[in-house]
Specification:
By secondary structure, this protein is mainly alpha-helical. The protein has one helix spanning 3-24. The radius of gyration is 12 Å and the shape is rod-shaped. The N and C termini lie far apart (41 Å).
Length: 27
């Protein structure tokens, strides 16, 4: 039952990393 929170946490982390990547590579 703790899989959903974990998944959301993972998505949040991925989102942050993606945002940082996009921020570094602004077109």
């Amino acid at each position: 039952m703790d899989h959903k929170p974990k998944l959301l946490d993972q998505l949040s982390l991925i989102s942050t990393v993606t945002a940082r990547f996009l921020g570094l590579h602004t077109y």
